[in-house]
């Protein structure tokens, strides 16, 4: 399986991977992002 590493454009830290075995409506992209790299705000 092919995977593409996702890195931050600003600091080059590792954020996760994109795989090519996802849903066809998203051109096969399946995103697997590390939870520690996501900062969610409460609404």
**Largest β sheet strand count, sense and barrel closure:** 3 strands, antiparallel
Low-confidence runs of at least 5 consecutive residues: none
How much is the average pLDDT?
Answer: 89
Estimated structural class: mainly beta
Question: How would you describe the overall organization of this protein?
Answer:
- The chain is 0% helix and 35% strand.
- The protein has strands spanning 3-7, 14-19, 30-33.
- The chain is an all-beta fold.
- It is built from no helices and 3 strands.
- It has a domain at 3-31.
- The radius of gyration is 12 Å and the shape is globular.
- It has a 3-stranded antiparallel beta sheet, with no helix packed on it.
Summarize the structure.
The protein is built from no helices and three strands. The protein is mainly β and 43 residues long.
How do the helices and strands line up, and which of them pair or pack?
Layout: E1 3-7, E2 14-19, E3 30-33
Antiparallel strand pairs: 1-2, 2-3
Task: Give descriptors for this structure.
mainly beta, three-stranded antiparallel β-sheet, 3 strands, 43 residues, 35% strand, single chain
